[in-house]
Design goal:
heterodimer; A: alpha/beta; Rossmann fold; 6-stranded mixed β-sheet; 4-stranded antiparallel β-sheet; 8 helices; 25% strand; B: mainly alpha; MetI-like fold; 10 helices; 0% strand
């Protein structure tokens, strides 16, 4: 479904009188194949390139070299076929929930009645029934992210890209949202790439987990998550889960320590 | 708290000031300091005179025309330069110039060049108002989060839809802020041009009262101007709240 081949991206920071110009190899020779309807999580320390990789698949960031193919077509720019859920929600503060959820459909030119029907279904599915006319300013973080999720699902994308979507939420809301996402995904399977900092999310949600490290940004390992589907939170109590978590933490710890050392130096 | 209770403290303070003024006057006992009662009486005298309304009508033409032109052109320019860095670099120095140039010194020269017409007064009001509106519009455009722009691109918006559905709506609060400040400056511009030109409307009234050594009438005129300004600002406030209600909702 998605194939990333030899992805390379370097960010250049221009120098000034005081500081030399520097460049960061944010992605180096990244290769990854993702099957249809696979749920992939990407986990790694800050600066390992996970968000850049996600944005490259989204078409928001252009690679220096290499190519990304999604559903057979080369990725050249953003498209609602690769809908995105953003970490800071990216809701239009001037529009109510209905309008925000239906936004993708509105851009596409879908008629008002039709898009409101679709939006209403999704608003119900994410548990926001009754809040159709609320403004984002009146919603909590968890509710805002549900709107973001509903908006992404409304355009029926082939691929769902999620950029640390629950990062800004408190622990309880986060856990509830994880369970809801699992439930939703079971009912309408899609190919998902989910970037996260959280060890639990990396394992609980995924079919496979991609571990990345920085300097240069690259994939160190791709783990299979043999925890069976449909997945529930009970999976957290299995020894497979515990072993996986240990393994991922080992990787993260090393990578993070390296990162901290490099930044400090 | 109902409306009356809310305004009671400021109203009360105002009355207190008027009475304090009266006491102050008694202490200094000078005919050049207007009495409170005299000032209040002058205010109402002016209010009912037809010639006052006529003067205000003439003078406000420059305010209305100048503000509307500055608003329309200012917002257009602000939107244009907000997205193109090179345009911004080209226009910014001129905006700064318009902001800092000492109007009071330039105006007589301007009048000599353009005469005492309505056009020259409109130009003055525009000079006061235009830069503020442009700068605020520009800032409003810039503060639209790049994440929102990314989101719009992901969901298929082209440049036109991006502008209409995201950029203009996102810039709106600061644009309104600019219009509010612009209105204040436009009023200053109108008043200043009246004082320096004093050939029409309010300017003539002011000249007359000054010439007659009538501080009470002068005060009455100033009070009327202030009332008009407050009324205009209040109207702008109401319109703004209607236009961008989402900006003023109670945050959770």
């Amino acid at each position: 479904m998605i194939s990333i081949t030899n992805a390379n991206k370097t960010f250049v920071k221009p120098g000034s009188r005081k500081v030399e110009a520097s460049s960061v190899e944010v992605l180096k020779n990244v290769n990854l194949e993702i099957k249809e309807n696979e749920f992939i999580t990407i986990v790694g320390p800050s600066g390992c390139g996970k968000t850049t990789l996600l944005r490259a698949v989204a078409g928001l960031t252009k690679l220096d070299s290499g190519e990304i193919k999604a559903a057979g077509d080369l990725v050249t720019g953003p498209s609602p076929d690769r809908a995105m859920v953003f970490q800071s929600f990216a809701l239009m503060p001037w529009a109510n929930v209905m309008r925000n959820v239906a936004f993708g459909l509105e851009i596409r030119g879908v008629g008002k009645d039709e898009r409101e029907t679709i939006a209403r279904e999704l608003i119900l599915a994410v548990g926001l029934k009754g809040f159709e006319n609320s403004l984002p300013g009146e919603l909590s973080g968890g509710m805002k992210q549900r709107v973001g999720l509903a908006r992404a699902l409304a355009v029926n994308p082939k691929i769902l890209l999620m950029d640390e979507p629950f990062g800004g939420l408190d622990e309880q809301t986060k856990r509830l949202m994880q369970e809801e996402l699992l439930r939703l995904w079971e009912s309408q399977k899609k190919t998902v790439i989910f970037v996260t900092h959280s060890l639990d999310e990396a394992i609980l949600l995924a079919d496979r987990c991609v571990l990345m490290a920085a300097r240069p940004g690259h994939i160190t390992e791709v783990l299979d998550i043999p925890l069976g589907r449909p997945r529930t939170r009970d999976a957290e109590r299995t020894s497979t889960y515990i072993d996986l978590k240990e393994k991922i933490w080992d990787h993260l710890r090393t990578a993070q320590i390296q990162e901290n050392a490099a930044k400090g130096a | 708290m109902n409306k009356t209770k809310r305004y009671l403290p400021s109203l009360g303070f105002f009355v207190f000031l008027l009475l304090a003024w009266q006491v102050f006057r008694k202490l200094f006992d000078s005919i050049l300091i207007p009495s409170t009662f005299g000032m209040v009486r002058a205010f109402f005298q002016l209010l009912v005179k037809g010639s006052t309304w006529n003067a205000f009508w003439i003078s406000n033409q420059s305010l209305v025309l100048g503000f509307v032109i500055s608003g329309v052109v200012g917002i257009a320019v602000g939107l244009l330069i907000g997205r193109r860095a090179w345009l911004e670099r080209a226009v910014d120095p001129w905006l700064d110039f318009m902001l800092v140039v000492p109007m009071a010194m330039i105006m007589p020269a301007l009048i000599m060049a353009m005469g005492f017409s309505l056009s020259s007064r409109v130009v003055i009001v525009c000079l006061f108002t235009f830069p503020v509106i442009v700068i605020n519009t520009q800032a409003g455009l810039k503060q639209v989060s790049s994440e929102l722009v990314d989101m719009a691109h992901v969901f298929g918006a082209n440049e036109y839809k991006l502008w209409v559905k995201i950029l203009i709506k996102g810039a709106a609060p600061l644009v309104w802020s600019g219009l509010r400040s612009g209105l204040g400056r436009a009023i200053s511009g109108m008043v200043l041009s009246e004082l320096l030109l004093s050939s029409v409307g309010i300017g003539i009234l002011f000249q007359t009262f000054q010439g007659n050594f009538d501080p009470e009438m002068t005060f009455g005129l100033v009070a009327l101007l202030v009332c008009e300004s407050l009324l205009l600002l209040k109207i702008m406030n109401v319109v703004e709240r209607r236009a961008i209600p989402w900006f003023y909702i109670e945050r959770v």
